[in-house]
Design goal:
The termini are far apart. Strands 1, 2, 3, 4, 5, 6, 7, 8 and 9 form a nine-stranded mixed β-sheet that branches. The protein has two domains: 209 residues, Spore Coat Polysaccharide Biosynthesis Protein SpsA, Chain A; 55 residues, no CATH class. It has 274 residues and is α/β, with parallel strands linked by helices. The chain is built from eleven helices and nine strands. The C terminus is likely disordered. The longest helix has 19 residues.
Length: 274
């Protein structure tokens, strides 16, 4: 059995995947690991795979069968690792200890699952309206409570506890087999965190494991994604969007989008018409 399996859903962006694989190849770890690529792309990866020194299990899946939850469950079924790391094709590890910092708390039985940090790559152009986006200080925050305690939290506290993201996350095999991802086209990661907390698992957020991952989204995408995220979290944890602290966060998020729109008012017209 492998120590670690790295599972990557992939579609059509070879250049970004190459950067991710290069970042993985630079990892300084004594853990044995495999890479599983769940490929729903329209193009061939044959040339890329021929030139790889990494251990890659390339799995083709029909494009129309992709599902954020079920496709990742397929990766779990095909994996051998004691720890399962999930990331995405356009993420890049920030340093050489990315694998270690995700896997160690799980293999040391500190947590059942770990979620790391994302931040914009300083070498690439970013959206100037990301001025409010915080970066966690390096620490490890553990959440260990049952459903009764979780359900008594405010919407804001619930929101903080389930800001889980499969762009940079890791799970013990036991935990992910106990609680598979649900069949969801969006938000399978946040839903998993809710299910895990309610089942009494220990999940952790770490500032020590970071990846570069950033999209300079347009106004229309930001608003539509924001609405989708709100719907998912409303259904998942019954958020109250007008609770004061959560309302402040929402105001900041929408201010960002509006600020971006004022730089190009035609974006507003385009979004309204679509």
């Amino acid at each position: 059995m492998m120590d670690v399996s790295i599972i990557i859903p992939f579609k059509n962006q070879i250049e970004q995947l190459v950067k991710l694989l290069e970042g993985i190849a630079k990892q300084k770890t004594e853990f044995s690991y495999e890479i599983i690529i769940l490929d729903s792309s329209d193009s061939s990866m044959e040339a890329l795979l021929k030139n790889q020194v990494l251990s890659i299990n390339h799995i083709r899946i029909p494009t129309n069968t992709f599902n954020h939850g079920l496709t990742r469950n397929l990766g779990v079924e095909m994996s051998q690792g004691k720890v399962l790391i999930f990331t995405v094709q356009d993420a890049i590890p920030c340093d050489e200890n990315w694998i270690n910092n995700l896997a160690n708390p799980i293999l040391d039985n500190i947590a059942d699952a770990i979620c790391g940090v994302q931040k914009p790559n300083p070498l690439e152009k970013t959206n100037p309206t990301e001025w409010y986006r915080p970066i966690d200080k390096p620490n490890l925050k553990l959440i260990n409570m049952g459903s009764n305690q979780f359900n008594q939290l405010s919407s804001y506290e619930k929101f903080k506890h389930v800001g889980w993201d499969n762009v940079n996350s890791a799970y013990s095999r036991k935990a992910i087999l106990k609680i598979p991802f649900r069949e969801m086209m969006f938000g399978e990661d946040a839903q998993w965190a809710v299910d895990a907390i309610n089942s009494g698992l220990i999940i952790g957020y770490t500032g020590f494991s970071m990846v570069y991952h950033y999209h300079p989204f347009s106004l229309d995408f930001n608003i539509k994604r924001g609405l989708a995220e709100y719907y998912t979290r409303k259904v998942t944890i019954n958020l109250n969007p007008i609770e004061p602290k959560l309302k402040l966060r929402n105001v900041l998020s929408w201010t960002k989008s509006i600020f971006y729109a004022t730089r190009n008012p035609f974006k507003i017209i385009y979004w309204i018409n679509t």
